[in-house]
Amino acid sequence: MKHNLQQEFQKLYGTEAQHTFFSPGRVNLIGEHIDYNGGLVMPCAITLGTYMLTAPNNDGVLRFKSVNFKEELEAPIQNSYQKDGDSWFNYPLGVIHYFVKGGTAVQGLDMLYYGDIPIGSGLSSSASIEVVTAYAFNELFKGGFSKLELVLMAKKVENEFIGVNSGIMDQFAVAFGEENKALMLDCDTLDYEAVDSNLGDYLLAIINTNKPRKLAESKYNERVQECQTALKELQLELDISNLCELTVPIFEQFKHLITNPTVLNRATHVVAENDRVKQAAKALAANNLAEFGKLMYASHNSLQQLYEVSGAELDAVVEYAATDKNVIGARMTGAGFGGCAIALVKKDSLDSFTAGLTEYYTAKVGYAPSVYSSLIGNGVGELHEAVIV
Question: Both 164 and 208 in a single domain?
């Protein structure tokens, strides 16, 4: 169904939208469960994302409505806000909470959100909503924040207002994304390098397992805790502040300090995955897609065996991809526990890949996946044309 968002806004609010903002979703090409361990990740912005249309009102209230959800909120302008249940509008409300607490004077605003990112799929719909709201309020109310400060604010919303111990990668990728480039981001220093990502004859297929995944209710926080346990044990003999300071050889030398086998597995994945990101950047820079594809498979195997965050659905996607001669790499992406996988598929073979995967996956899982193709797109910004999506 096509949505003319300007018409939707007019219908809901009885006035024309004055501004339209967009923030993409993201996929992480490689470097999973690394962001909260201070290492290297390689996300890219995609061309699916969140649209936010706004118009001022004279009623002194903030109105939140969505094309995707029935829940809506009308909140008076005040000095702080609190999370209200589990509704979608908590993400923008959290952003506004930090704006007003920081002293930015906001005025009445009518807002309409629409996202074409599959919700709960692991493509960062929440970060997309947070960043588009932060960017919009910064522009509309002259907040004076840099883009990096907006990213850090959005992360604070996720961690403190919503209550999910996620790292910086999602918000950073959707804010700083560049067309046809992956971002090799150091999650400890926030230094990043835009890596040319010429996919040549291949495209990025995004496969939604269609298994619902609620991050706050998943075992995500458990994995964070396990990594912190590994770090504390290694710090008995090593002067380090995060796991990703370790090279593979140094980790091998000191891993005996980790007493629990499960915790050891988690740390082994983290250190090796951080090294894979470095190898992946070299492969992409050399335009060696075959090598990059091998690293994707290795990443998935580690996430499946050592980190235990994949599951039957994600594994079925990668199993099928490994049998298709037109695929050179595949892996789960995002936090796992359902959500999405990605695959590098020959452009002229996407239809046959989709048909073959759907048959294999449905037989194994009991329902069909959804397959999207995406370009690598730009980060958050204001749009200056009517949007029909």
Answer: no
